Amino acid sequence: MSMDLAVCNLVKAYGDRRVLSGLSLSLAVGATLAVTGPSGAGKSTLLQIVGSLDVADTGTVTLGEHQVTGITGDAAAAFRACVVGFIFQDHYLLPQLSAIENILVPAAAAARLKSTPTKIDRARLVDRAQTLLEKVGLGDRASAFPAELSGGERQRIAVARSMMNHPALLLCDEPTGSLDEHTGHTVLDLILHTAQDENASVLMVTHNAQHAARMDRTMRLSDGLLVAV
Asked: How many other β-carbons are positioned within 10 Å of the β-carbon of residue 151?
């Protein structure tokens, strides 16, 4: 089933300040898009609306058969758990959980949200999490806790976690912004390679011109609209 992303005429304002002014974009299955622009331009707001973390004033967002616009409650939670994956500048790992347990968190969330409860095949989920750990080069760190990992390692775990439920779309908000240059390049490599392996599309906002140039397309957010770069 096609999981193309279509964003049409998004408008979003905070009080008198309009952040998005009829913004539209499209992203095909498996494609990658970087969105650049100055701080405060609305890049994170765009990602949050696409990921159902925020709501536009007007406009529509669809991802395949999923009408994102207007979904709330459990429907929005299920969309975030099962259809999209998130990678932020901060890793947001739970400090009390090991690396592999952090990767399993989205699977537990998805299981709780199912309308028809089914028996969880924990062995299969652990195998999936371990496979993702190996994809990001940390197969031997499954039992390590976040405090025992470097910043780059924690962000690798966040990459693996974002892919746990086979998302159709990966939303990346400055995913390398807190890392040094070398580690940042390594993490971006992992994001792109893992997404390609999983046939996931990538929508990334970034200030890093080198990283933006590695995506299929780059667009700049300016005055609430996207323009090709």
From this structure: 13
CA 150 – CA 129 distance, rounded (Å): 19
CATH number belonging to the domain at 5-228, selected among 1.10.645.10, 3.40.50.2300, 3.40.640.10, 3.40.50.300: 3.40.50.300
Give the predicted TM-score (pTM) of the model: 0.93
Q: Are the CB atoms for 201 and 27 separated by under 8 Å?
A: yes
- Model pLDDT for residues 101-148, shown as the tens digit of each residue: 999 999 988 887 765 555 567 889 999 999 999 999 999 999 999 999
Res. 84 pLDDT band, cuts 50 70 90: very high
3-class DSSP state for residue 118?
Answer: coil
The position carrying tokens 């994809």 is 135
| Pairing label, strands 217-222, 225-228 | antiparallel
The two three-digit tokens of residue 37, written as one number = 């622009």
HSE-up of residue 37 (Cα within 13 Å, Cβ side):
24
CA–CA distance, 39 with 193 (Å, rounded to integer): 28
**Mean pLDDT across the stretch 156-185?**
93
Determine contact, residues 225/56, Cβ cutoff 8 Å. no
Contacts of 180 (CB under 8 A, 6+ apart): none
